[in-house]
Amino acid sequence: MRSQFVILRWTLGTFVAGVLSIFTTPVTQAQVNSWTNNIGGKWETVGAWSLGTVPSINQSSTFITNGFFTGFSLKDVVIDSTTVASAPGSLIISNLVLSAPKVFGEGPVHQGFNVLIISNTYNAFTGGEYGALGVQNTVTVSTGGAITIINSELGVSATNCICTQTNDQLAVDGSVVLESGNINLSGEFGQIAEAIGVNFSGTLTVAGGGNFIDDGGLAVGQNAGSTGTVWITGGELAVTYNQYNDGDTYLGLYGTGSLVQSNGTYFSYAEFIGNNPGSQGTLTVAGGSHEIGAGLYIGSESGGAGTMWVTGGTVSDTASTTFNFASLTQSNGVMELIELADYGTMTLAGGIQLIGDNGIVIESNGIVWVTGGQLIANNLDSYTEIGAGSLVESNGTVELFGETVGDEGVGTLTVAGGTHSVGFGGLNIGQGGQEVYYSAGTGTVWITGGQLLVTLFSSYIEIGVPSDLGGGGKGSLVQSNGNVEAFGEVVGMGGGGDGASSDGELIVAAGTHLVDEGGLVIASAASTKGSVTLAGGQLIVTNGETDVGLGGVGTMTVSNGTWLAEGVFVGGEGGGDATLTVAGGMSSVYSNFTIGNSDCTGTGTVIVTGGNLFVTNVDHDAVLDLESGKLLLSGGTLVVDQMISTNPCGTLQQTGGTLVIGGVTNTPASFQITSILVEGTNVFIAWTGKAGQTNVVQATNGNGGNYATNYTDLSSPIILTGSGNVTTNYLDGGGATNQPSRYYRVRLAQ
Questions:
Q1: Of 231, 251, 263, 249, which Cα lies nearest the Cα of 185?
Q2: pLDDT of residue 651
Q3: For residue range 157-190, what is the model confidence (pLDDT) as tens digits?
Q4: Is a pLDDT exceeding 80 seen at residue 105?
Q5: Cβ contacts of residue 611 below 8 Å, gap of 6+?
Q6: Is residue 18 over pLDDT 70?
Q7: DSSP label at residue 96
């Protein structure tokens, strides 16, 4: 279809012998030729024109603006094949103006319409192409004016001529309908060639054929207070001759503009929807092909209001970034974008949205809602960055190469339903700035349903990630339902520049959280903090290791739910400070469980206050190795196949609960004072302990009511004899004579 425009340009220069000179010869007469017949008729009718001759290039303007025969409010002026044959010279003119007055008479006042119909001008005289009405300056369709084109061409050119106006070669405050044939505009670089809704209200309908603009742009709703509407139901609207020319579309330049496409083809160099403060633009694509060559802008940073709806068809912007400052909603169809930069609200409810190599950027409190359809940005190195905004998925599918939540800002990802998968680029939550030195990032991921999948080989979930530029990262992942699967997971990532710190948090309250062979690492290096809390659901790390406090300060707490692990290391490397607390639920380790390390440079503490901790497997060769640090059992149950406690840096203390080693149950004695009796001036103290232990009775007078300090040994070491739990006593001679009070306690010496 675009090749016809080249033919038209040649046709305008060779249409009539001698016409070519018009392109370079200034108009020397300033005559206006007006249509005077009030009932319409044929363009070539000599008597219908005010100058008594048909229009020509030697006249300054051609006007069809007069009133109507009594009782009528509509008249047609027709150009057809007969016009082409009988009056070809009348089809090359300087300016064309159409409008109509309001009609007064019986009934209410109403708008009249003057319609120029260019119909079926195909004629052998033109060399086998459409005949054309060629206008060398401007076509103005004001209120009440209309042009209908059927199997014909309208050409408006400002090229190679002395023009009185370089803007708005076609200015419409009335109506233009292209049923078939072509509209061809040749404007000036950087100017508006076609304006629909200049100062009032204008419409353009492209139902067939092609509306082509070579240089210059299209403005729909050009000036403040104007309203413009374009319908594309077929054919083609091309707002540039090729993707390298400057042909932009403005839907709401300063006024209100809308474009509705249900079929056909559209192309523009760049497209702006709501361009300036106070403007309003709307684009609706329900069918056909809608292509942009150099960027799509929805709304503007300066305050232009833009809305884009995609309910079908195909939208393509694969050469430059799509900027959404306002509202983009897709419920069907296909969008293909090289990059999406969201600073407003984007909703994907259906269809497919394909993002290319430059990925997705969500900033300035922008939000992306995925309630259905497919959002795909999985090209190699195509990253999704939620810097200072949010992405919420309640249904549908999201497929990404890599994703960062909270990059130099506060970012949020919520997965409430559907499937959210991230590829080799991994998922970073809370990342220090990669562009600004020492800038921090805070990211939060909420999993309330659906699936989060980061399962490809060597793809990790990293929570709290410092940057090479010294920026700290703080991140958290909170799972209250749904399913999370990752190849590996690091909570509190190391490796930042200039000693940058990181702080990561993982909370699993319900659902299933599965970490594969990459393992779970909590506080991977110095200057990092990491914490994991299992309050419900399942945490499964059965194909890799769980490292708590590998090099930084790491904590893990199991208060409920089920934790399944292969190998566990608590404070396993030098400088690591780690604490694992089991307060409830069930924790099972199938291989080795190591606390601290052999050279005593790592500090590990395991506290069991409730629940069940099993270090067992079917072969009964699982080992709990206490190297450095402490294993404190005050409640719950600890079951171990084999236990190694030969390093003097390690301490086992059982004050409660149940310890089973190799099938043998070790229940701690009840170590407590059972009675204190005054016998004259003496005090009799009785207590229970475990046979073989050495105890010492201590006392303090507790001056001022303070009984927490200043205890001194009262007795010599007392060795409890017998077996199992035993009861013994001690008599404090003269103890009752101490005033005003005396406090006792029993110390476990060995």
A1: 249
A2: 86
A3: 865 444 444 467 899 999 999 999 999 998 766 7
A4: no
A5: 558, 559, 560, 582, 583, 584, 585, 586, 587, 636, 637
A6: no
A7: E
Exposure of 78 in the CB half-sphere (CA atoms within 13 A): 13
Residue 348, Cβ neighbours under 10 Å: how many?
Answer: 26
pLDDT tens by residue, 35-73: 999 999 999 999 999 999 999 999 999 999 999 988 789
Tally of residues, the chain:
750
Pairwise CA distance, residues 152 & 82, whole Å: 13
For residue 705, what pLDDT is reported?
Answer: 57
Residue 141 pairs in a beta bridge with 98, 172
Asked whether the beta carbons of 444 and 476 are under 8 A apart, the reply is: yes
Helix (H) / strand (E) containing 8: helix 3-14
Give CA–CA dist 509/512, Å, rounded.
9
501 CB-near residues (< 8 Å, 6+ apart): 466, 472, 527, 528, 529
pLDDT digits (tens, 9 = 90+) for 306-353: 999 999 999 999 889 999 999 999 999 999 999 999 999 999 999 999
Tokens describing residue 729: 């006593």
Count Cβ neighbours within 10 Å for each residue of 313-339 and write b for 16 or more, e otherwise. Answer: bbbbbeebbbbbbbbbbbbbbbbbbbb
State CA 581 to chain mean position distance. Answer: 37
Q: Please, which residues bridge with residue 228 across strands? A: 202, 257
pLDDT at 434: 59
Name the residue among 490, 516, 486 with its Cα closest to residue 503.
490
**Both structure tokens of 325:** 């400052």
Give me the residue label for tokens 């559907």: 418
Average pLDDT, the chain: 88
pTM: 0.85
The token pair at 716 is: 């010599």
- Residue 383 CA from chain centroid, whole number: 11
In whole angstroms, what is the distance from residue 279 CA to residue 185 CA? Answer: 25
pLDDT reported for residue 333 = 98
Write out the two tokens for 658. Answer: 């149940």
Contacts of 700 (CB under 8 A, 6+ apart): 707, 709, 710, 711, 712, 742, 743
Which DSSP category does 49 fall into? B
* Residue with tokens 């659902």, as numbered in its chain: 511
Task: Give me the amino acid identity at 34.
Answer: S
Q: How far is CA 695 from CA 414, 689, 698, 748, 750, in A?
A: 57, 9, 10, 5, 7
